[in-house]
Design a protein that fits this description.
The complex is a heterodimer of chains A (331) and B (211). Chain A is 30% helix and 25% strand. With 331 residues, chain A is an alpha/beta fold. Chain A has two domains: 170 residues, Rossmann fold, CATH 3.40.50; 135 residues, Hypothetical Protein Tm841, Chain: A,domain 3 (2-Layer Sandwich), CATH 3.30.1180.20. In chain A, the strands form three sheets. A six-stranded mixed sheet of chain A has the order 1-2-4-3-5-6, with helices on both faces. A six-stranded mixed sheet of chain A has the order 9-8-7-12-10-11. A two-stranded antiparallel ribbon of chain A has the order 13-14. By secondary structure, chain B is mainly alpha-helical. At the A-B interface, strand 4, helix 2 and helix 3 of A face helix 1, helix 2 and helix 4 of B.
Chain lengths: 331, 211
């Protein structure tokens, strides 16, 4: 695959340099400069919200550092968790003296490194809580939601937790709303074509031109099935059927995210949304917020995901609260 | 002769040299079960380890800790973090000691296994690197001659791969397609086995001689 890069070894650092140059509200921090923080000082007494994960998913993870969202973010190599050092650096950057919520996807390396960083932060008097994004319904069954991966729906938890922290919520309250948002969010994706880690000898996975894979993860983890492609309305119906099967009983409204995995254009995302809106209407669910675009990508991977965040009277106002980061502005 | 920073430096050099050819093999093995980057990540990690002046450290414990510190800034992958955890554990076990008896290797590997289980929240039998560490610890336990240790380590690695090859992976990313993992080696276990063979090669062929 062709890429517009220099030395693959510099891919992440050059990307971060460009991101911060383009958005002066962001700065690289830490000994390895593998954490992104807001250039404004962390307000004293505010709960910090941090995330982290591998590169290759922009705007996730670092792109959501900003007002009403994340205060800092640790970033790893492509498709690799952030290092212990960068997790420590992100926690330190987000420390306003009221504790720090670590909100990230349910992946082994990310968990271990944030856990170790949290232990080290505790030794420095920084209290932390952890909430894991577990929205990918293709990665484990409804009886094992704790084993599910975190994918695109994680950004709803960023938004709710970030807004709660701005409102003055304490660490327990911010963690609780993040967990509630995670618990009410479901995602499923479909992959059409692969991506390639810079410097790798070949693509991350192979898929025939006439095939698609339902439920594939954002790193190319195998999904539910691989079959020949079909009209998108049929795919959306199947995806929505799986998402709506886990609808909470009290849900009457949803926030919707139609996300491009990288290569799929806006045109196709709107075709997807057209059918999603019809299905939601038939299901008696009103749309409170809609996001359509590349919010969580896997570099040049083709495909899309659908996320539903089942709203309630607490989550919806937080998603609607003002926020401003390079890739998401509200209010 | 006991285990010193010289032996640790040789082990790091051998592991790093082996990764030159092993990286692609591990990437291919990982691509069948995950995202195909295990080899590249370990190659990067061993290359960072190789930049550490291990023999310049004041004792074996400090040398392991220097490797852990270098590794902690180079990778955040789960397997990489387990390797760093192993270095930290070995560093704590050998802190302040300029040499350690060969008969302690089994015990130290056992501590590494236990630490990996805690950090990775892994259980034995799930077909992960932890099972490889367990086999290695049990094989080294009670032995003190370098050549005997080397031969036991290699036999244990071949044995554990064979024992688990036909089983499904039940944790980590590979658990999501457990059926597909039957007949395949776990990439982490395979990496451990191949690196153990590389590190112990001198002992296997020159029983009793320093590595």
């Amino acid at each position: 695959m062709k890429k517009l890069i220099n030395d693959p070894a510099n891919y992440v650092d050059e990307m971060l340099d460009g991101l911060c140059a383009a958005h002066p509200g962001l700065v690289r921090v830490g000994s390895d400069r593998r954490a992104i923080a807001r250039s404004r000082p962390m307000p004293s007494g505010k709960v910090g919200v941090v995330s982290g994960g591998g590169s290759g998913h922009l705007p996730l993870f670092t792109g959501y550092v900003g007002e009403g969202l994340l205060d800092a973010c640790a970033i790893g190599n492509v498709f690799e968790g952030p290092t212990i050092n960068s997790c420590q650096d992100a926690i330190a950057a987000a420390n306003g003296g009221a504790g720090v919520l670590c909100l990230f996807g349910n992946y082994g390396g990310d968990k271990m490194n944030f856990e170790m960083a949290g232990e080290l932060a505790a030794m420095e008097g920084i209290e932390t809580r952890t909430v894991l994004g577990t929205d990918d319904i293709a990665s484990a069954g409804p009886d094992e939601t704790g084993k599910r991966r975190g994918v695109a729906g994680l950004i709803f938890a960023y938004k709710a937790a970030g807004a709660k922290a701005v409102q003055g919520g304490d660490l327990d309250a911010v963690a609780a709303i993040a967990q509630k948002t995670v618990d009410r969010t479901r995602t499923i994706g479909v992959a059409l074509s692969s991506c390639q880690i810079p410097g790798a000898a070949g693509p991350n996975f192979t898929i025939a031109d006439d095939e698609i894979e339902m439920g594939m993860g954002i790193h190319g983890e195998p999904g539910i099935w691989r079959k020949q492609t079909r009209p998108v309305d049929e795919l959306v119906d199947e995806m929505m059927g799986l998402l709506l099967a886990e609808r909470p009983q009290d849900a009457r409204r949803v926030a919707v995210l139609i996300n491009s995995l990288g290569a799929t254009p806006f045109e196709e995302l709107f075709i997807i949304y057209r059918r999603v809106a019809q299905v939601l209407d038939e299901a008696g669910l009103a749309v409170g917020q809609r996001l359509i675009g590349p919010y969580v990508t896997s570099m040049e991977m083709g495909g899309a995901s659908i996320s539903l965040c089942y709203l309630d009277e607490e989550v919806e106002p937080l998603l609607a609260a003002p926020a401003n980061c390079p890739f998401w502005q509200v209010g | 002769m006991a285990f010193t920073t010289h032996h640790l430096a040789m082990a790091v050099a051998r592991a790093n040299a082996r990764m030159g050819t092993l990286a692609d093999e591990l990437n291919a093995a990982d691509a069948r079960l995950g995202d195909g980057d295990t080899g590249s990540m370990l190659a990067r990690l061993t290359a960072v380890f190789a930049t550490v002046d291990v023999e310049a450290q004041p004792d074996v414990g400090a040398a392991f800790m220097a490797l852990a510190k270098a590794g902690a800034s180079s990778t955040g992958s789960s397997l990489g973090t387990l390797v760093i955890t192993a270095m930290m554990t070995a560093g704590k076990e050998t802190a302040g000691q300029s040499e350690i008896g060969w008969d302690r290797l089994g015990s130290i590997v056992g501590k590494v296994r236990d630490a990996a289980m805690v950090r990775g929240k892994a259980e034995l039998g799930a077909k992960t690197i932890v099972d490889g560490l367990d086999a290695l610890a049990r094989a080294l336990d009670g032995k003190s001659a370098p050549g005997v240790l080397g031969e036991a380590a290699v036999a244990a690695m071949d044995g554990v791969l064979a024992e688990f090859r036909g089983r499904p992976c039940t944790m980590g990313r590979a658990r999501m397609f457990a059926e597909r993992s039957v007949g395949l080696d776990d990439p982490g276990m395979l990496a451990l086995a191949e690196l153990v063979k590389a590190v112990t090669s001198g002992h296997v062929h020159q029983a009793g001689a320093p590595a």
